[in-house]
Amino acid sequence: MTRTQIQLPDETFARAKKLCEEREISFAELARRGIEYLLSVYAPGPAAARAWEPPRPRKLGWKGLDDAALKREARLTSAAARESRRRRK
Fold it and tell me: Which residues of 34-43 are buried (b: 16+ CB within 10 A; e: fewer)?
């Protein structure tokens, strides 16, 4: 077992000591239980063991259009916007 020291705010220490008295456990036991609980809650799962990868891209765009058709529509829209700007000037 390893010995260690921690620093706590006075109010936190007082509340912890009161809990220890109520439960009839030592302060060290309270600290061990608290740390064990946090480690169980935040323990890395199987997903954390794998290397991180960015999320896979989703299909975005208009429904019913394949990538080529979407590209054509985007080009037409850009061309139409340019033509509209030219007419306004």
Answer: eeeeeeeeee
**pTM (global) more than 0.85:** no
Instruction: Answer for the pair 29, 19: CB distance below 8 angstroms, yes or no.
Output: no
* Pick from 14, 37, 44: nearest CA to 27: 14
The predicted structure's pLDDT at residue 75 = 77
SS (H, E, C) 51-68: CCCCCCCCCCCCCCCCHH
pLDDT digits (tens, 9 = 90+) for 20-75: 999 999 999 999 999 999 988 887 766 566 777 888 877 665 677 777 877 777 77
Q: Residue 36, SS3?
A: helix
Establish how many alpha carbons lie within 13 A of residue 13's alpha carbon, considering only the half-sphere containing its beta carbon.
5
